[in-house]
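Minutes, structural biology subgroup

Action item carried over from last meeting: produce the structure token record for Amine oxidase (Sinanodonta woodiana). EB confirmed the sequence was re-checked against the source entry. Recorded below for completeness.
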Amino acid sequence: MADNETSINSSSRKYHIGNEQKEKKSFNYCSHFFVLVVFAVGLVGGICIGIYVYHDNKSDNSCLNQFSQGAGANTGGSITTSTQTKASSDGTTPSTAPITNIRQCPNRNPKDNTPYESSLFAPLTVKEMTDVSEILWREKFITTINHAPRSLDENFILYMYLFPPRKEDAIKYLYNNGSKPGRYAKVHIQRGAEHVPDIMEYKVGPLGHPEATVTQLTTPGEIHFNSRPYDGVEVKALDDLLHTDMKVLETIMRESFDNATFPKDLYIFYYNGPPGRTTEGRETRFVIGFPALEELDVINLLPLSGTVHNPGNNVSVWYSHSYYYLNQGPYRTAQDLVHAYENNTIRKVTLPAGYRNNLRRELFPERDTSLPPREYGDQPGARSYMPKGPRFSISGTKVKWMDWSFHISGGQLKGPAFFDIRFKDNRIAYELAVNDIALAYSMDASGQNGIIYMDATYGILGGVSSTKILPDVDCPSHAAVLNTSYWDSYSQKALDMDSICVFEADGQEVLWRHVSPNFAGGMRNRHLIVRVPVVVGNYDYIFEFQFYLDGKIYTMAKASGYIQASFWDEYNPHAGEDKTRDAFGYRVSEYQTGPIHDHMFGFKVDMDVIDSNNSFEVVHWKAGDILGALKTQSNITNVPPYFIYNQTRYVEYETIQKEAGFKLSYEQQKMFVMVNNNKKNKWGVKRGYLIAPLATGAQSLPDVHPAMKALSFTKYHVTATKRKEEEPYLSSIYDINRMDNPKGYLDLMLNNESIVNEDIVNWVTVGFLHVPCSEDIPMTARVESGFLLKPFNFFDKTATFDMPQYYEGQDGMNVEHEPAVDACVEPKTKY
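Output recorded by EB:
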């Protein structure tokens, strides 16, 4: 049998060898032809690739992603090449990587063509503001239109923004087929032309209706003229008044400040608020400074200051007084200060020659080319993109994403806002809105000590400074951008700006996960972000609202920009021996100190847990003995034997009966929960939402401080009040300018009303303490605070299991992954 097998296999092998010799000749002819074809194709392809790369390197679209051969190509143009050669970072061995199916990601504009005006809550448009100004002009409410006011003796528009509909009317329209409320504008008019000047507020509308009317909201004289914010007209009048004094002080300025003269080399900074301690006596403190940054420069302020008494609109009775030089004074007039200076009865300072020439280079935020570059710093950083296009949509200003929906709103004074926030067809909140930003400064500097700002007075979303979105800095280039409008009081015109961006973010982190011997499961954290960068003078703020797949909302307030500095005086008699710091902060540069201050952000959070019939609970986190813990729930008298320690931690539940404000304390920790007593989850627990302030500072000024009534919202981290239409905000924009007679502060709302089963508003205040240091020069790197709104027994279980996730069982069955990604090039699109 073996011999037969050998014979058969041998003959068979001979047969195959014969065929191989025949096939080899044929293959040689074919291979030669194939090589020629490949060479020709390669030559032509190489030339094409060279042309493509040459032109591509000159274009903006220079990034080629590298994909595997099997990458899908659903839509979009494609570019097919064979290889890409690139020198390695150290310049030694080049690497070659295949590139196939390069295509742009499919894309669509998430915004439709619905006009903003059709939305119930959309910010006012430029056209609406212009129409309102024409109505007010026609009805003789204003004396100035379409041009800058020439004096304080005119009636002109200070501010204009959306007057939201009554909540009751909006809810009827949104949920119960009620009629649609009209759109109205709220307008602040500075009335300098009246016999008794004042500020008046009006409601104008319905907008777009031929019979729009003007309704008076305040009475004449109710808002004192001296309570007004600073504007360009007043600043020009102040400049004109001080021009003579600046000439008197020229010798001091030249000798002290590197041969500087006014107004060529110096400017006057007036915004050292508040303007006096009383309403009747408006007093404006000013400081001389270098305008080295070519904008509102509050870093390069100098030790020369004074005060202008400037109440009312009669400029002829204004006068300057209380001059200080290196904190020495007060001198009644500029001439008195010069007399003391020339008689050498005061200390002097002399900046080195050429000092001014270096200021811009030292403080302008541009890359320092004298420093060695970081390794790989010249290569693009990591990015995220949308492989199938946006997963959200925007109609007018209404946004939908992953079972979330809400309306974006806001106005120039108070900032961005959201209305009718829903998740999985449940109303979570009726209104979530920025209301104010408070800053209180402390420093040893004449003209600047005790500065207090309430930024809503100047305008958060357009006002003293407008804003713009920086693509690929504030938001990714593919974010959808919405614009808002604001009223410019100086030009008396409505201005438009790109101010809000919306995009889905890849957190590149876990939302939930677990790995065990039996399975591995998890979900990647992707969330929708609405981001609003704003500029208020020297500070840039970024408000960010993050909507999560499990029903959470993170609200963040972030700060950057320039600090407001004060002059560093080496021989300050109050500073002591340590010349690097004093009681109010650190020296941060050659002639500047960084004064300590805080940033406190106030928000209106009108939670509606399912509906408006809610209660406010505090869950106290405590520690104590076992019997004390158990007695919070029952009348037990003996400790059960199974407890191994006599001390434990426990929670105690409290339903707050009356309006109240609460402060966070590490020693007495607590959680704040809005609940609906009439709506229960599957387990019989009241459905609710947790309000959790994140890392935050606290107000340390005592209640006796003159500004604390106006700043009363900063005293509490969470305040619960009964909702009222006549209490729309947590502060008044005028109160910091009328500290002796404030009328719109949060403490006034705490009048002991019941908040059980009521429509409740939570006023949430978070922030941070800022002790400027050298790393804040020239630019403060981002610092932040915020709060979390989180489902708290609102659902029966984690609210993400209707989404694809990662899951792999031990046996390899029941495998699930997120939808597959067809690799593509990120589209460079601005919607």
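Discussion: Confidence is low (pLDDT under 50) at residues 1-41, 43-99.
Next step: EB to file the record with the rest of the batch.
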